[in-house]
Model the fold of this input.
Amino acid sequence: MRSAKTLFAAGVAAIALFVAGVAQAAEPVKIRLAWVVPVANWAPLLLEKKDLMQNLGKSYTFEAVRFQGTPPMITAIASGDLEIADLAYSSFGLAIENAGLSDLRIISDEFQDGVAGHYSNEYFVRNDGSVKSVKDLKGKVLATNAAGSAVDIAMRAMLRKNGLDDRKDVNIVEAPFPNMKAMLLEKKVDLIPGVLPFSQNPELRKDGMVLFKQSEGVGTTQMIVLAARQGFLQKHRAAMVDFMADMLRVVRWYTNPANHDAAVKAAAELTKTPPQVWAGWAFTNKDYYRDPNMIPNLKALQANMDLQRELGFLKTKIDVNKYTDLSIVKEAAARVK
Done:
């Protein structure tokens, strides 16, 4: 029979383990959300409205992590260095097919292009140039941010709609978005994609002409989705519902017309730019469409990824419904109504 001393020691040890378990369970979940472009992506804007993030520091901690593009996000989320990626539809397919992330799940919308009454990416040529129609691009030099990107695929689709072979009839070069205006106006390229906020540059608007919009090439585009791995979602579901509820509060605040001036001020302070850079379009119908419940357009997403495959950037057909879990954002939306 065990001695009273032994039983006492065992009891103390059990209590210690219990307390440690409770403490561990109460530890806030680390959530790192990726972003590339300020204001277009929500992550850095969330931190400008911490007062609306009711669960921050309680059930979760939050960090906005900047990336130069989406490919490094795929590596980071695969290695456990990122919890939520903001992926273009083109990157999401590559994450599944090339990186083997079969447990990656779309959890919400970030923004959509080409929704009626809202902004669609514009493709610019020079006013004083010879290009006046898509067919005039034959033999010309076109800029893209990256082969297979969302804007790149839309551009190639528009070329094919007009009888041009995107691999033979034009020369396509890659360049960062901030450099594209200068490349066009200095006659180094003949066409550039204009994405927000770069497409609103006054000099580009003055000396450039919109040849076509992304919506003309591909219709509605589910441009960016938030995605996380299934194991993380299952393990930390309660904290993720808290986070998404807080994110919805912030998203609805920014997109509420009554808060427009304050939202513009937040964008200006975040980017250290004058408010007039954002005042005329940001968070209005001149901006990309952002679903108020952060529900992605899965029909558009499927069409976008099917086109990606048709153009040779994906080998297999991917059923987006198989890789989608909207239960968390729907629960969050119900909570903050």
User: Anything to note?
Assistant: The CA atoms of residues 34 and 65 lie 5 Å apart. The chain has 14 helices and ten strands. The chain has two domains: 9-113+221-335, 122-218. Strands lie at 29-35, 60-66, 85-88, 104-113, 122-126, 141-144, 171-174, 192-194, 208-213, 221-229.
